[in-house]
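Predicting holo structure, DP6 bound.
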Amino acid sequence: MTVYQATASAPVNIACIKYWGKRDTKLILPTNSSLSVTLDQDHLRSTTTSRADPAFTEDRLWLNGKVDEIKEGGRLATCIREMKRLRKEEVEDKNPNEPKLSTYKVHICSYNNFPTAAGLASSASGFAALVSSLAHLYQLPVSPSTLSLISRQGSGSACRSLFGGFVAWQMGSDPSGSDSLAIQIAPQSHWPDMHALICVVSDDKKGTSSTSGMQRTVETSALLQHRINNVVPQRMKDIEKAILEKDFDTFARITMADSNQFHAVALDTEPPIFYMNDVSRAIVAVVVEYNRISVEAGKGYKAAYTYDAGPNAVIYAPERNMKEIIELIVSYFPQEGGSFKDVFGLFGSGQLVAKVP
Ligand code: DP6
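Done. Tokens:
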């Protein structure tokens, strides 16, 4: 008997130009384009195995070993349905000899190689790995950009995790969402010197989820309108150019400015949303001062911070600066348990050093 099973993994990505706001909540179409760096496969990733079998009676999912509900009409169900549709259209309708896997129920098992308690979003890598594993299972002859159209409907930021390196999510304009997809700006090998340090400030579950927070921002923030109309389009062009030219100064300036504006837009929401805490702000101050000294000495920017919907800092920097940055962070924010490791959890606010990508 043939076993229909496939496994795939996808890494976490961290945005430099933030996605924050949907123009269509069902299809997950964003109010602005965004750009991220995908971390390397070794550090933070989701791995998913999918299996199709005519004997299965329902689609089922296990997340980190525990059964997870697949809600009817929910995001997971949408991704599975869309992948089955692609299988039917792209494979079975074109070649009637192919097994009708689209009619079988699937069992899906996914786990993250980082603790969910680490305070880092897993939905991006999770949905990207899910879609990739189903694409393997169904042997779909489609591009990662096509798959990104489907993972986007699981979680917006997941569309960017289908590529490594530097990735843009183009917001698109078609109401069907057919042009709201991810493309790779440059592979990791283009700029291997770019590294990321993840400082886990808190491993608490965040107070306001991205999904509900950004919807409130869309409904109430006037600043968001300014951001999406007057700021992000130019930033997307400028950061893309900076990446292609390996211009770290411009990359750093835009990345920090965009993180700041995203958190300003969260604050401009009614009621206001605060994702950064005192430690997050203190890390900003350290990076700002570190850059100021270097810029004044004519040596340019050395590091760029960015914060997602939580207090944890991600610091992008050329590899040669990383040792110094880690020493700085450790001296200002003394750690229990000693040195940095490329694993989590020395303590509640342990760190992770992740090479990009
Ligand atoms: C701040 O992709 O988690 O990390 O589409 O509702 O699932 P949904 O939201 P999600 O939002 C990510 C927001 C962000 C910025 C970013 O990654 O671009």
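The longest helix spans residues 222-244.
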